[in-house]
Amino acid sequence: MILDTNALIYSIKQRINLEKFVKEEIAVPISAIRELEVLSKRDNNAKLALKLTDRYKILDVSSKGDEGILEAATTFGGIVVTNDRKLQRSLKERNIRVTSISNRTVRKP
Length: 109
Prior knowledge:
alpha/beta, Rossmann fold, 6 helices, globular
């Protein structure tokens, strides 16, 4: 399962233990970590989300932002967790499985 930046921050804000809902390996693209590093300078939730990434596999991608998520999904496979509607559409257009976080749980893809 691949997490994007907003899924990580949302899980912190909503106090959701992602590992409780996700049985497969959790991974985070380096692009999301770089984004969290920038955001963590002004957002405490981003700072906590950045610390959380230490527990997950890091995926090396060359792209930034949403393109980094797309690259990770196409290169490494897996389901992407994001609440970003635009990214969800882009993933679905490429036949990449996607899910979101809602009501304090990770939805089934």
